[in-house]
Design a protein that fits this description.
The complex is a heterotrimer of chains A (203), B (228) and C (373). Chain A is mostly helical and 203 residues long. Chain A is built from eight helices and no strands. In chain A, helix 1 runs antiparallel to helix 6 and helix 3 packs across helix 4. The radius of gyration of chain A is 20 Å and the shape is elongated. Chain B has one domain: MetI-like (MetI-like fold, Orthogonal Bundle). In chain B, helix 3 crosses helix 4 and helix 6 packs antiparallel against helix 8. Chain C has 16 helices and 16 strands. In chain C, helix 8 links the parallel strand 7 and strand 8. In chain C, helix 7 packs parallel to helix 8 and helix 11 packs antiparallel against helix 16. Chain C starts with a strand and ends with a helix. Chains in contact: A-B, B-C. Chains A and B meet through helix 3, helix 4, helix 6, helix 7 and helix 8 of A and helix 3, helix 6, helix 7, helix 8 and helix 9 of B.
């Protein structure tokens, strides 16, 4: 039965991560395309992460009730920051020479975004995704308090019944998941950077 | 129960909870910071060993605070001490990590200049290394403070008060007002403390070290790992 | 007085300094120079114990530096490094008074000292004292770096390539300032550089090091005249030849031989035609046996020339003129002072030999410097 919880935790995180990536990248792109919006967007996302996650979950629960959906929304709100910020600074970091070349060739803004800016910013965006994934794994622990299940439930129950074994199992599973995901994504990240390093844009 | 009545009933409790919460945070951040700074100085003096210790600490940092409190609770029981020890330990990591890398990244030219001026190890530490590492240390303290506002909510899990009590009770009795009564002050506290620390940092940073907005951003880009 | 006695230092079994003996007098400006890896910086840093020596001893006024606490020793020896290393968290004034503060001078005295020091380099106290290092230019920063080293009035100042990171113009003016300060304050300065220009300009004595040993310690003059070793000769290459050149280059070495000439009997229109063919605006007038008579310039023809007349009345004789055997320097001086396009060179019996133009001069100098042709 604890293994179910591991799976539950994992799916919780992955579902949330899917939303986070989409929302985060979109917000990052918007903040890049409309520099005026960049400060408010980044500030709001920053504040989201400042609020204690249990408080966020509690507030969402008031509106959505205690269930998985609440936890997923909580994770999304909490973990947006790294992706939004890295998307923004990744896009802004694309060399002005490259951007000028793209414009000079007659690319439209949107075409340039998809064919030049985003591909070049991708490694940094990926770093954001990796950080968000690890953060999400930790936030999901709180899910248990609003009826979302996951490994938090295992740990919390362990505390309540004074079962060191259960606490340790929950913790170990949690850390293993975090380290594994971080490790795998870290490897991919390295390759991404190397690839960009090798074939700097000429097309 | 009308809202008026509700507020009357809980106003005092809320005030007390806020103070308890804030007290835990300030106390544990202080304890954690002092320990972290001492450890950071020690670790920077033995960089060869630290290269192995730091990654281990980073992994330990990914253990959620709930586990610290939980395990300690099994040993030391339902007491404030449990919360304080657990949160203080948790507070060490971010500060330690940032202070360590901050001190380590102080450019050697400043050390050479300091030594050339005849500073002793202690003088160098206090008038050169700490001040130059301060921006980085401060990032750590800010992170720790915000995490701790979050983790202190868990004190209520073992009956030790704070704003978490309202959230727990609210979740347990399905009373949304109680949840909000805990959650909103907790949120405001985190935001407020974050803003306050930003202000303090701005005040404390000498003009000579103020320019690079980029570098703070850079450290924040990497600072998000392994926490809640 | 500073005495190095058989000082030896090695890193991981590899000797870097192999038994140095050197005595430096009070008030002397000594420059350590040599190819990179020769041990000059190590030699410098052993003096304030930033680098411990393996064996041998260094005495300052007869007292071994080993008997002194390193920190106390360093507070009495000024130290300037290439990377400047001003503390970014301190203002200019705080930076300058770092050592006095450690020596527990009171506040008033420190402020006075800061004012005094800033005045030394013509920096206004009110303007600069409360700035931070990043608000200064590189040259200003290094001035403050030097002042920091001078603050506690140490009799000895060590400088490790202090101007290496500055642009040439700033470097030049800082060199002048440091030399001036050293003279005025009678400091003993030990200065590491790899720039021979700098060494020749500043040093009372140049200590040339190679492979951990001193090859020659001599005044710049002496080292230039008689370098003790081929390595030194090579290192100073161009400078040695410069002395040579100054001594021996004559006007005939630097002149151009092919010159557009004209005889005084020619007429104005022919003259103009000739000028346009040769693309010049003046011609040297010589008679049949090449005796130099003067020049004729296009302006004069334009102003006063009459078509069909000879150019005789238009000949100018106020052009700068030197003899072949004269020092090249003389031609150079004339060229610069008179703002003339060229200087005419004549043989002792007043025959035209050639002209010196700016380009002929630079060509000659280039070939003297680099031996090209």
């Amino acid at each position: 039965m604890p293994w179910d919880r591991v799976w539950e935790h994992f799916t919780l995180v992955m579902t949330a991560l899917g939303f986070i990536i989409v929302i985060g990248v979109v917000l990052g792109v918007v903040s890049y395309l409309y520099p005026k919006l960049s400060k408010p967007i980044l500030t709001i996302v920053d504040v989201m992460q400042t609020i204690p996650s249990l408080a966020t979950l509690g507030i969402i629960m008031v509106f959505m009730g205690g269930n998985r959906r609440t936890v997923i929304i909580g994770i999304i709100l909490y973990s947006l920051l790294p992706i939004v910020r890295n998307t923004n600074s990744g896009l802004n970091g694309v060399s002005p020479a490259v951007k000028e070349a793209a414009r000079g060739m007659g690319m439209t803004r949107l075409y340039q975004l998809f064919h030049v800016d985003l591909p070049l910013a991708f490694p940094l965006i990926f770093t954001g995704i990796r950080i968000a994934a690890v953060t999400s794994i930790s936030v999901a622990v709180f899910g248990t308090f609003v009826g979302g299940g996951g490994l938090g439930t295992v740990i919390y129950q362990g505390i309540r019944v004074s079962s060191m074994r259960q606490i340790l199992f929950g913790t170990a599973a949690l850390m293993a998941m975090a380290l594994l995901i971080d490790g795998i994504m870290g490897l991919i990240e390295k390759r991404l950077y190397r690839r960009i390093g090798l074939q700097m844009p000429q097309e | 129960m009308t809202l008026q009545h509700f507020m009357d009933t809980y106003a005092l409790d809320l005030l007390r909870a806020i103070f308890v919460h804030l007290g835990y945070v300030i106390l544990c951040v202080s304890i954690g910071t002092v320990i972290a700074l001492v450890l950071a100085v020690l670790l920077t003096r033995i960089p060869k060993i630290s290269r192995f210790i730091m990654p281990v600490l980073s992994v330990l940092q990914t253990i959620p605070g709930i586990v610290f409190i939980g395990i300690l609770f099994l040993y030391t029981g339902m007491r404030p001490r449990t919360v304080i020890i657990a949160l203080s330990i948790y507070a060490i990591f971010p500060v330690l990590k940032n202070a360590y890398s901050g001190i380590l990244h102080v450019d050697d030219k400043y050390r050479e200049a300091a030594r050339g001026c005849g500073m002793s190890q202690w003088q160098m530490l206090f008038s050169v290394e700490f001040p130059l590492a301060m921006p980085s240390i401060f990032v750590g303290i800010r992170m720790t403070t915000i995490y701790l506002v979050s983790w202190t909510v868990l004190a209520a899990m073992i009956g030790q008060g704070g704003l978490g009590e309202f959230i727990y009770r609210g979740v347990g009795t399905n009373d949304n007002r109680l949840i909000l009564m805990g959650a909103i002050p907790a949120a405001l506290m985190a935001i407020g403390l974050g803003a306050l620390l930003d202000k303090i940092q701005k005040k404390l940073t000498p003009r000579g070290m103020r320019e690079p907005e980029q570098s703070t951003q850079q450290s924040q880009l990497n600072a998000q790992e392994g926490e809640i | 007085m500073i005495e190095y006695r058989d000082v030896v230092k090695s890193y991981g079994g590899k000797p870097v300094v192999k038994g140095i003996n050197l005595t430096i007098q009070e008030g002397e400006f000594v420059i350590l120079i040599g190819p990179s890896g020769c041990g000059k910086t190590t030699t410098l840093k052993m003096l304030n114990r930033l680098i411990p020596m393996d064996s041998g001893d260094i005495l300052i006024n007869g007292k071994s530096i080993k008997e002194q606490e390193p920190e106390l020793l360093r507070r009495n020896i000024g130290y300037v490094i290439q990377q400047i290393g001003l503390f970014p968290n301190m203002t200019v004034e705080q930076n300058i008074t770092v050592v006095p503060r450690m020596l527990k001078w009171d506040k008033e005295r420190r402020r006075e000292r800061a004012k005094e020091l800033l005045a030394l380099v013509d920096m206004d106290y009110d303007t600069y004292a409360h700035k931070y290092p990043n608000e200064l230019s590189g040259g200003q920063q290094q001035r403050i770096g030097v002042l920091r080293a001078l603050a506690a009035e140490p009799p000895i100042v060590l400088m490790d390539e202090p101007f290496g990171a500055l642009d040439p113009i700033t470097r030049d003016s800082l060199q002048d300032e440091i030399k001036d300060l050293q003279k005025r304050l009678n400091k003993t300065v030990i200065f590491v550089t790899h720039d021979m220009n700098e060494a020749i300009k500043l040093a009372d004595r140049i200590v040339f090091m190679c492979d951990g040993k001193i090859l020659q310690a001599a005044s710049p003059e002496e080292m230039l005249r008689s370098p003790a070793d081929d390595i030194i000769r090579e290192f100073m290459g161009k400078h040695v030849q410069r002395v040579h050149m100054e001594d021996e280059l004559t006007c005939s070495d630097i002149m151009r031989h092919r010159v557009a000439t004209i005889s005084p009997q020619r007429r104005t229109l022919e003259c103009v035609e000739l000028m346009s063919q040769r693309e010049v605006n003046s011609l040297i007038v010589v008679d049949d046996d090449r005796t130099y008579l003067g020049i004729v310039a296009i302006e004069d023809i334009k102003d006063r020339g009459v078509a069909g007349e000879t150019i005789c009345p238009l000949i100018r004789t106020d052009v700068p003129c030197v003899e072949t055997g004269q020092h090249a320097k003389e031609a150079f001086r004339l060229l610069m002072d008179m703002k003339a396009d060229y200087v005419v060179v004549v043989t002792p019996d007043k025959k035209l030999a050639g002209i010196v133009t700016k380009s002929s001069m630079s060509k000659a100098m280039a070939s003297a410097l680099w031996g090209e042709g």
